[in-house]
Amino acid sequence: MYTKLVTKGLLALTSLTVALCLTHLAPLSAQAANKKIVLIAGPPSHGVLQHEHKAGCLLIEHCLQGIQGVDILVQTGGWPEDPGVLEGADAVVIFCTGGNAHLAIQEGRLEQLKPLMDQGAGFGCLHYGVEVPKEKGGQAFLDWMGGYFETHWSVNPHWTAEFKSFPDHPISRGVKPFAVNDEWYFHMRFPEGMQGVTPILSAVAPPETMERGDGPHSGNPAVREAVAKGLPQHVAWAYERPNGGRGFGFTGLHNHLNWRQPDFRKVILNAILWLAGAEVPTQGVDCPLDDQLILSNLDEKRGRLPLDILRDARKNESYISPVRANP
Is the per-residue pLDDT at 306 higher than 90? Predict the structure, then answer.
């Protein structure tokens, strides 16, 4: 009888100990399950309130840092020297100068990214960051992001794009029709047949976008034909890779003040959550931003004062004008 009581007591004590351990470990498990999102901001580029890599990435951090299950890490000033920054990332998003200067194509960095991509990490780029040389990074970006800016094929005019309808996709949640003036790159290089690609933002480019002569970024016969036919041009897209990884490209964000447009920024914020495999809220990510926040963390650049540019922008409806959806 005594032996049975001792045995039962030991079993009860063991069960209690296990339960207490699990209780204490639960927060650690939840923390370990958080999606790690790494935002890489390139060095200063262009003029005041243009290509604001650091300020843009820090705005994204501000908007997403309170979302449960997500950890945001911002690397400013260029590529992280510590390899641990990228270790275990569920998504990597790059906002930087593109072309031959692109951060990701410098020595050894595509090789550094490849294991993450092979494991299914998301990969996204913003504005100039979507451009890499065809012969150096083009195929990798096509494989990881589902599209990129290819010189002598894609173009980079400034124009007001009107976005009137959106696909049934998590990135589109809560997004309403809007119009924004930006340097919207278009006629991107996509996979054959757009396989795996879902256009998120598409608009018909006006004839004025073809006023420049042919050149690496300005025009070519193929894009002129597409614009003449009135074909919708895709300026933001989602991509689902065969291995389950995800990609996102967004060609706007030359104009930093476009963060003022709530649907413009909602597309970006929704997309970054989706890239990492995190849940996108039913109505998307709502993140009010006032001008004080938008003008925070700007790179030091020579030129007009940001407040002067902001005063002019208030008179320019193209930054904030809504449009009506098609009936």
Answer: no
